[in-house]
Amino acid sequence: MSYDSGSSPTSDAPVDQAPVPSASAGPAPGRGPAAPTRHALTVDLEDWHQLSYSHVTRGSCETTANVVTDTHHILDLLAELDLRATFFVVGLVATAFPDLVREVAAAGHEIGGHTCDHQTLYSMTPAELKADLERSRRQLQDLTGQPVISFRAPAFSVGSMANESFFETLAEAGFECDSSVFPVAGLRYGIPDAPRYPFVVQTASGPIHEFPLATWDLGRYRLPVAGGTCFRFLPSIFLEHVVGDLDAGGHTATFYFHPYEFHHGLLHLSGLTWHDRLQTMYVKRLVMHNLFTGSVGERWGSLLAGHRFLPIGDLHRDEPIT
Questions:
Q1: Is the pLDDT of residue 209 over 50?
Q2: pLDDT above 80: residue 61
Q3: Which domains are seen in the chain, by residue range?
């Protein structure tokens, strides 16, 4: 496989890479962007309480009903704004609350895969990954009666664009689109040399249309602006400027959110020992995931209402990357 990008993260010149999956960016120069620019809106449908408990205790717990309540808050906001999104559903939630997945699909949103139990890619062998992808996709299609063509890796754990086996396995499992590449140098994840805008990864098993997470260059610094912590901490006026700049350049960007960011009240875990409660990881999660989280819904309304957002599947179907 080979990787050819029509644009690098920092310039418009072609990028030469070592043999890795082939990618071509679009749209072609000279065609001009569609007006208005359309962006991808996504939600990682996972249970904060369940995943946080696993991180803190290294144990497991049942999926909690909080994910249902918090997802309903998202669905209500999207209905008010007349918007649809891609919901990347982890299998743990689909198993515990199948009616929630059906409800999301019935509301017109796209259902995408997010692995069976939120394992990172680097914790699975290629054979385990393929089995996970096929099982997760089959579960979601059986629940909704709709094709599942989009995927996101937990924690954006692709590692690098040289991860040939991931993209090929994704195509083998029947997926057409991916949104796991975060073109930023992060502490826990990120591929700083990946293209910033949608591109195609060519594999022996078929193409994968990649929708990288939104970033913005400020001088020599690249900022993640796609969602999560940055969406809560960056000023609203700055976020509006960033999306406006992406619009003006005709660049489709991908944004992501989680149900816990729409939780009403304090996020915390029950049933922990004092030892667990004093762990740095738990204290960090309490602070980082509660600070300014209450403002997300308010920011969502003002930002999303002023721009065009669609599910990834719609963008893939209506404006295929060439």
A1: yes
A2: yes
A3: 39-318 (3.20.20.370)
Torsion of CA 243, 34, 251, 200, to 10 degrees: 140
What letter represents residue 248's amino acid? A
pLDDT reported for residue 322: 66
Q: Of residues 125 and 302, which shows the higher confidence score?
A: 125
Dihedral of the alpha carbons of 78, 253, 111, 292, in degrees to the nearest 10: -50
Please, is 276 exposed, middle or buried when counting C-beta atoms within 10 Å of its C-beta (0-12, 13-18, 19+)?
middle
Which tokens hold the place of 128? Answer: 């385990």
Alpha helices in the chain (DSSP H): 48-57, 66-81, 91-96, 98-106, 126-144, 164-172, 228-233, 236-248, 274-277, 280-290, 296-305, 312-318
Query: Rounded to whole angstroms, how far apart are CA atoms 97 and 81?
Result: 25
Find tokens 């719609």 and name the residue. Answer: 314
